[in-house]
Design a protein that fits this description.
This protein is an alpha+beta fold. Among the domains are: 2-56 and 248-312, no CATH class; 74-236, Distorted Sandwich (Beta-galactosidase, Chain A, domain 5), CATH 2.70.98. The chain has 15 helices and 32 strands. An eight-stranded antiparallel sheet has the order 9-10-11-12-19-16-15-14. A hairpin with a 4-residue loop joins β11 (149-154) and β12 (159-163). α3 packs antiparallel against α15 and α6 packs parallel to α8. The longest helix has 22 residues, at 517-538. The chain starts with a strand and ends in a 7-residue tail after the last helix.
Length: 663
């Protein structure tokens, strides 16, 4: 068995196989005895368990690139999209918003629209992150008078726990919101005829007015589902379950990748949480207590303390397989020679992102030269890669204050804030893997910085004081976040799902090339899990877009909305294409994404015209995964322009996808 997200990591790795999610199980167990933080709740027919544990130190490194990153940077905080609710800390206290979804032609809005604030009776002066788990956070709230109190938020949970020195909890609701006492220990919040919120006190004592007094300084706020057949009393009578930690992990047993999301509770009890579209896409199911309509789609309310799903481990090919057709092979070989000459004449870009993308293209041509037995071209291009990569890696330095590796020179797109590190560093890591594969002697000079890049984007040591745990990846949401600080009103965001996948692909190759097996396993695990999120939230697989939204893809996923947009262009080709690049040996998943015809119609160009677009090379390469005959017909119209930048790669991909090459 192979495990990750734990220490130590076993050394033996077995061969992975291609596949998509085929089976999953949501485990709903209530254990009567505590087990010192080790949660073993597997059904009898399960695979051997990955170990889940509570680290001795949690939250020791500032958590950038996640849904709560603004807590470190701003007071008031930016809205925190926890789902099914959203929250914000300000002088008013904790502001509470629901999970509304308002679709329009180009945007599915789930904007922060608070209906109530709660506090301890005085204004708030400051906040501080006390600790965090893999998808939960505890925040200490300092009022202007009195002791600090604690708020615990967990992604996916409709429950907010408030504790410590809050003898009285006072809500204040907006106009049009009805606040009333439901029973002695609970208040009910309504909008019109819809129940939206319960606020409950533990060990409640009598108090006048619309407030709550807890004899044990414990309160909870419960976001109510839109659709449910359960009573309010059922929810209020559930045990008071507080999260001690949240743990994400996976293991490989044979050809199966098994993923677990575990909430470690006080008495190993289940808690109210939600099953998301990507969980259901993986096959997870359970008896539901209700559902929420959110910007991410339908979330199902369940009682659980772990979610588990299984997938075949992904095959992530290192290199290319040459085409068999003699004439096509000759054209690819000629293009490799042309590309080799061109790369040796070029100066690489200076910016951290565009230079990385240049290295990525160069690495692909090296792999093609190897596949087609062009040893002279491969050697010349390896010389070029080694000399330029050596210089480029010298521009990076570890910042001990920020706890991140940053581009000390030629920074782009907020790299110094943590923005887009997985996008940027994935290109460098993959090109380094290609170099070391063919020149093992280069490892010693490349490994120190490339290992730092790997740790920056995918550190697996929760107790590290150097990097946060899995900086970019959000385990419960099933995808990564790109922005380092998340100071936007709509929370954090991620645009290019394909570049996120490229980062985890690169990590797996780096582990394979250097024999660092933990990176290979982490890369495969993150790749498989991210792909579930990509399919669900960018491409709408088994999670249909609302009818009011008039496009077959989302290209920019935020906490508070999903957009038909990019950061740089409103051109439909760019909106679509940013989800396709870079084209690598791992791009074959593009051919399995549903909705191809609708996406082509959305671009709004005839194939021949699309091929002559500035991203026409990328368009034709993508098209070949779905309609190889049409891609071959328009291939010669698609001179390499701004996207692929390699005639050899374009020709190879289109030819490889032809039936004549037995793809």
């Amino acid at each position: 068995m192979r495990e990750t997200m734990i220490r130590p990591i076993p050394k033996q790795l077995s061969k992975a196989v291609l596949g998509v999610a085929v089976a999953a199980v949501l485990v709903l167990l209530w254990l009567s005895q505590p087990n010192d933080g080790v949660v073993d709740q597997s059904p009898a027919d399960s695979l051997e368990d990955p170990i889940v544990y509570i680290a001795e130190k949690r939250g020791v490194t500032e958590r950038t690139n996640t849904w709560f990153s603004s807590l470190y940077r701003s007071f008031p905080s930016a809205p925190l999209f926890v789902f099914p609710g959203a929250y914000q800390f300000s002088k008013k206290g904790l502001s509470i918003s629901g999970s509304q979804s308002v679709p329009t032609e180009k945007t599915i809005f789930g904007s922060f629209d608070p209906f109530c604030d709660v506090n301890s009776g005085t204004a708030i002066e400051s906040i501080a992150v006390e600790r965090y788990g893999d998808w939960d956070v505890s925040v200490m709230v300092k009022p202007s008078a009195g002791e600090a109190w604690r708020v615990q938020l967990a992604q996916g949970s409709p429950v907010v726990n408030i504790s410590d020195f809050v003898s009285v909890l006072k809500p204040n609701c907006r106009d049009g919101i009805q606040l009333s006492r439901y029973r002695s220990d609970a208040l009910l919040v309504k909008r019109g005829d819809q129940n939206i919120l319960l606020i409950q006190a533990a060990d409640a004592e009598a108090v006048e007015g619309v407030a709550l007094l807890s004899g044990s300084d414990r309160y909870r706020i419960i976001q109510l589902p839109v659709f449910t057949d359960r009573s309010l009393d059922f929810l209020l009578d559930l045990p008071w379950t507080e999260v001690r930690d949240t743990q994400y992990g996976w293991s490989e047993v044979g050809d199966v990748l098994r993923t677990r999301l575990v909430s470690v509770t006080d008495r190993n009890e289940p808690l109210l949480t939600t099953l998301w579209p990507h969980h259901r896409l993986a096959g997870a199911s359970a008896v539901t207590l209700g559902s929420y309509s959110t910007v991410y789609g339908r979330l199902d309310l369940v009682l659980a303390n772990q979610i588990e799903f299984r997938q075949p481990s992904p095959v992530l090919p290192f290199g290319f397989t040459p085409v068999s057709d003699p004439a096509q092979r000759a054209r690819v070989e000629a293009s490799i020679r042309d590309d080799s000459e061109r790369y040796q004449r070029e100066m690489p870009p200076t910016g951290v992102y565009f230079r990385g993308a240049w290295f990525g293209g160069l690495a692909s041509v090296i792999l093609l030269a190897d596949a087609y037995d062009l040893e002279d071209e491969r050697a010349a291009l390896l010389d070029l890669l080694q000399s330029n990569l050596r210089l480029a890696l010298g521009d990076f330095a570890y910042d001990d204050t920020k706890k991140m590796l940053i581009a000390a020179k030629n920074s782009e797109f907020g790299n110094e804030k943590g923005n887009d590190h997985h996008f940027h560093y994935g290109y460098y890591i993959r090109s380094g893997a290609v170099l070391v594969r063919y020149r093992p002697e280069a490892r010693s000079e490349m490994e120190p910085i490339l290992n730092e890049m790997a740790l920056d984007i995918a550190n697996s040591d929760r107790a590290s004081g150097r990097y946060p745990f899995l900086r970019h990846f959000s385990p419960y949401a099933g995808h990564s976040w790109a922005d380092g600080e998340a100071l936007f009103q709509d929370g954090n965001n991620q645009e290019s799902s394909s570049e996120a996948l490229n980062a985890w692909y690169a990590l797996s190759l780096w582990g394979e090339a250097t024999g660092q097996e933990q990176y290979a396993l982490i890369g495969r695990g993150l790749y498989a899990h991210e792909l579930l999120g990509v399919r669900s939230y960018w491409f709408g697989e088994s999670n249909s877009f609302p009818v009011e939204y008039r496009h077959p893809i989302v290209s920019l996923v935020w906490g508070g909305k999903r957009d038909y947009a990019t950061w740089f262009s409103a051109d439909p080709m760019h909106i679509q294409g940013i989800q396709w690049l870079p084209i690598t040996p791992a791009s074959e998943y593009l051919g399995r994404l549903p909705g191809h015809k609708a996406r082509m119609q959305d671009i709004g160009l005839a194939p021949a015209s699309a091929a002559m677009h500035e991203w026409g090379d990328l368009y034709v390469a993508y098209l070949s995964y779905h309609d190889p005959a049409e891609a071959l017909r328009i291939l010669e119209l698609a001179a390499p322009r701004q996207a692929i930048k390699s005639t050899a790669l374009l020709r190879h991909v289109v030819y490889s996808n032809q039936p004549s090459n037995n793809r």
